[in-house]
Design a protein that fits this description.
Layout: H1 2-24, H2 35-54, H3 63-71, H4 79-89, H5 97-103, H6 109-122, H7 128-137, H8 146-151, H9 154-167, H10 170-186, H11 191-200, H12 205-213, H13 218-231, H14 234-242, H15 249-263, H16 268-277, H17 281-291, H18 302-307, H19 317-327, H20 330-338, H21 345-352, H22 361-368, H23 373-386, H24 404-427, H25 432-441, H26 449-452, H27 455-477, E1 482-483, H28 486-506, H29 514-533, H30 547-578, H31 582-604, H32 614-645, H33 649-658, H34 660-665, E2 693-697, E3 702-706, H35 711-732, H36 738-762, E4 765-771, E5 774-780, E6 784-785, H37 799-804, H38 814-817, H39 822-837
Antiparallel strand pairs: 1-6, 2-3, 3-4, 4-5
Helix pairs in contact: 1-35, 1-36, 2-4, 3-4, 4-6, 5-6, 6-9, 9-11, 10-11, 11-13, 12-13, 13-15, 15-17, 19-20, 19-21, 21-23, 23-24, 24-25, 27-28, 27-29, 28-29, 28-31, 28-32, 29-30, 30-32, 31-32, 31-36, 32-33, 35-36
């Protein structure tokens, strides 16, 4: 329990350090304010995002939380924090207004800005009395001299005007019109901002139309275009569409952008009327490309009727295809399908990149079934960019296409779609409105911008891991390495395998034949899995292995040809399909996270500080291997069921047959779960004389190790591990966004684990084992040893260990020539004799 508590503290401390460092280099660490204030703001912002996602309508009013959110508003607070704080308070809607009214009595300008932001987020006529009280109490907008205006914070005035607009009342519109007239006389540069707030009230269209018609020049007219578009008033829409006849190019562009970005569906009728009467192809292209190419047009079915004849227009075909693809309704794609025989497949596929829903499936299927292999290849290249998970089953028939280039393209498209389906499965576990947004947020790539700059490094590390897995598997199979610390070695091998299977799925997508690379990597990992699980149990001289152990050891060589030749390709396919299931993927990733934490523990909490029983370590390692094997078997069974349901029954049966060797691997570690009633319990040992050796009894096995040569060496190792974690964290948080900073919490433990294993491989740890009256010495690297003395009755120290203990063979002093002092040797001899009697 104490060790678990210490482990939790170490991991929590590492993650806290990584979070602080990643945050310190991000844009949320505002340089003009204290670091602690910025950190609290950042933590509140993430908590606010979580509350807006999972608790958007809290049942009971919490005044303390409202007060805490208001305190986030300072003159130097990051703007995103202010936005989240306003939305956070607005969750309580009308119930929060009395508390905001009480807070508004203070004269603190940043606090008043927070109140205004919250009232704006709440909106409605109920907010108007509070806003009027703020204006009157603090005399805002009443002093109209230029020096008075400069003395009032612009942000406060701006958000108060926006809050008045959000109240959507005639009184607010009248007040804003009066404020605009008075401000315009003293500050013409700021006055146009109030026009938008007048429009938002819903009662300012007559004033804006009258003022726009009185505009004396194009520059003055331009001030009213965007506010008029925000009114969404039919008369305002007709006026704006009429401005397309103006000769000024700047006016026409401003009208186009305003109608596209703010008017929404309200502008569609006036725009369609203009399309029907104009013959200006440039203007028609502008309108189609800007105002009829998004979700706003979906509410007007007549848009499809207008655009369909233009699909074959010599000058407007591209605009029509692009608009219909972006509209994305069933009718839009049906209009394209009716013109398929007259459309060039290459031209249409360029627009299909913007297809993002299931309505595009008929078009995709049409081109994937094309008799022209070039068309099939083009569609396969576009398929990952389309980001439609429902298109994944359409790829399977092309994996056996008659054209070799189509088969290659189909395999590459399938690999990418596997990642899309994996991400889709994970996001479906979240609330629908959150999961859907998060799924499309990472388009067009699976990783998205926060990880794009890390991909080359991640792929390089994964490649090294695959090569290391292959070498280790070969060494185990040929008996070139001896496992002398099973628990440490099991963690090392399990991390290699878990990272390997995840990396094979996410990172291998390059080369002339990526599927061949995936199969090769899976073969390396499968060979390592067999080599680890079927390692013979360690025996002392004179002990004989049981029949079960001999059978498992001999079966390793019998299974390897079958595993590498038959099970490997099937397992590679099964794993990619298994990652589509969110439950299986989360279980696999959770096991990977557990092993990563245990690897970091080996660096952070040495066994000499709090020893653990060898039996418990053996059971924990056996449990990890059995769970991993079961997950792989589940993947094979799920894949077999998928093949059976798809009519490929021979392949389904073959999958079950080649899964038998995988099922045989699990019993190899079942004995590790059994509790031996005769196993000795750990006993406290008397301290080793001197300060050079540390010892611990793990339960029948006494382990001695030389203490660290100096505090500098230990500090250097710790610095390497922490530096790797920090480097991963900083790279993950490079972009400075909240998602990037939080991503550092995932990357940092993995970086620390990689550094820990690298040190364990490069820096050998001399170990002396005492068991059953025998003693052994070896230099362990991640729990394995390429050379050791073997179990002997007498202690034999290699020269390298003698040097590590400070022996000087050339000295004339007998004491300096000895590696061990007499009292240390006597202590070890006594322990060996006691273990022999036990």
């Amino acid at each position: 329990m104490r060790r678990a508590s210490l482990l939790a503290l170490v991991v929590a401390g590492l993650l806290a350090a990584v979070l602080l460092l990643s945050f310190s280099v991000s844009r949320y660490n505002v340089k003009q304010q204290r670091f602690l204030d910025s950190l609290v703001d950042f933590l509140f912002m993430n908590a606010g995002y979580a509350a807006l996602t999972f608790d958007p309508q809290p049942a009971a009013l919490d005044e303390q939380r409202i007060a805490f959110a208001l305190r986030r508003h300072r003159s130097t607070t990051h703007n995103e924090v202010k936005q989240v704080a306003a939305r956070y308070i607005a969750r309580w809607k009308l119930a929060a207004i009395p508390h905001l009214a009480q807070a508004s009595r203070q004269a603190d300008a940043p606090l008043l800005e927070g109140v205004a932001r919250a009232l704006e987020a709440i909106g409605g006529s109920e907010t108007l009395p509070v806003l009027l009280d703020i204006l009157q109490r603090h005399r805002i907008f009443e002093r109209d001299r230029p020096e008075d205006l400069r003395g009032q914070p612009l942000n406060l005035r701006r958000h108060l005007a926006q809050a008045l607009g959000a109240s959507r009342t005639p009184e607010a519109a009248k007040l804003l019109i009066d404020i605009h007239r008075r401000v315009k006389a003293v500050n013409p540069m700021w006055a146009p901002m109030i026009l938008s707030d007048i429009a938002v009230t819903g009662h300012g269209a007559p004033f804006l139309l009258e003022a726009a018609r009185r505009a004396g020049n194009a520059k003055e007219l331009d001030y009213y275009i965007w506010p008029l578009a925000r009114t969404r008033d039919p008369e305002a829409m007709e006026f704006l569409v009429g401005l397309f006849a103006r000769p000024e190019l700047a006016i026409r562009r401003s009208v186009r952008d305003a109608l596209d970005q703010t008017a929404g569906p309200a502008a569609i009728p006036a725009v369609l009327e203009l399309l029907g009467r104009t013959r200006d192809e440039q203007l028609m292209g502008w309108i189609i490309n800007s105002m009829l190419d998004d979700a706003d047009a979906r509410h007007h079915p007549e848009v499809v009727e207008v655009l369909e004849p233009l699909l074959t227009h010599p000058a407007l075909a591209w605009e029509a295809r692009y608009a219909l693809t972006r509209i994305g309704t069933h009718d839009a794609y049906a209009a394209i399908a009716r013109q398929l025989d007259r459309l060039d497949p290459g031209d249409l596929m360029r627009e299909l990149e913007y297809a993002s829903n299931v309505n595009a499936i008929p078009l995709i299927e049409h081109y994937l079934r094309s008799p022209d292999p070039q068309v099939r290849r083009m569609m396969l290249y576009r398929l990952p960019e389309i980001f439609v998970p429902e298109a994944a089953p359409l790829i399977a028939p092309l994996l056996a296409d008659s054209d070799p280039w189509v088969r290659k393209s189909a395999r590459e498209a399938a690999l990418t779609m596997d990642r899309v389906l994996f991400w889709k499965g994970l996001t479906e576990l979240l609330p629908e409105r959150v999961g859907t947004s998060l799924f499309y947020a990472l388009r067009p790539t699976f990783f998205g911008a926060p990880l794009d700059h890390m991909l080359p490094l991640l792929r390089a590390m994964h490649g090294v891991g695959v090569a290391l897995s292959a070498l280790l598997a070969l060494a185990l199979l040929l008996g070139m390495v001896k496992v002398i610390e099973p628990y440490r070695f099991d963690l090392f091998a399990a991390f290699l395998l878990l990272e390997g299977f995840v990396g094979d799925f996410l990172l291998i997508e390059f080369g002339r034949d990526p599927w061949l690379l995936i199969q090769a990597a899976t073969g390396c990992h499968l060979a390592l899995l067999a080599g680890v699980l079927l390692q013979p149990r360690e025996h002392l001289p004179g002990e004989l292995a049981g029949r079960f152990e001999r059978l498992m050891g001999a079966s390793m060589w019998l299974l390897m040809p079958l595993l590498l030749a038959f099970t490997t390709p099937v397992l590679a396919e099964a794993l990619r399909y298994a990652f589509h299931g969110a439950a299986w993927a989360l279980a696999f990733l959770a096991l990977c996270a557990l092993v990563t934490v245990l690897v970091v523990e080996q660096w952070a909490l040495r066994w000499s500080l709090l020893p653990r029983r060898a039996a418990s370590e053996r059971r924990l390692a056996a449990l990890i291997w059995i769970v991993l094997t079961i997950l792989l078997l589940i993947a094979m069974l799920v894949w077999s069921g998928h093949l059976w349901a798809g009519g490929r029954r021979d392949d389904a049966v073959f999958t079950l047959i080649v899964a038998v060797p995988l099922a045989w691997l699990a019993p190899g570690r079942l004995p590790g779960l059994l509790i031996d009633p005769n196993a000795p319990a750990p006993r406290p040992l008397p301290p080793v004389p001197g300060e050079r050796l540390a010892a611990a009894d793990l339960g029948g096995l006494v382990v001695l190790r030389p203490r660290a040569a100096s505090w500098r060496a230990a500090l250097l190792k710790a610095a390497i591990v922490l530096a790797t974690a920090v480097a991963a964290a900083v790279m993950a948080g490079w972009k400075g966004k909240a998602f990037s900073v939080l991503l550092a919490l995932i990357m940092a433990p993995a970086g620390a684990a990689v550094a820990t294993l690298a040190l364990a491989l490069l820096v050998p740890a001399w170990t002396i084992h005492v068991r059953g009256g025998f003693v052994r010495v070896g230099a362990a690297r991640a729990g394995m040893c390429f050379w050791h003395t073997g179990w002997r009755r007498r202690l034999v120290l290699p020269l390298a260990l003698q040097r590590a203990l400070g022996a000087k063979p050339e000295s004339d002093d007998t004491e300096q020539r000895r590696a061990l002092r007499p009292e240390e040797y006597a202590w070890i001899k006594d322990v060996v004799e006691r273990s022999a009697r036990a």
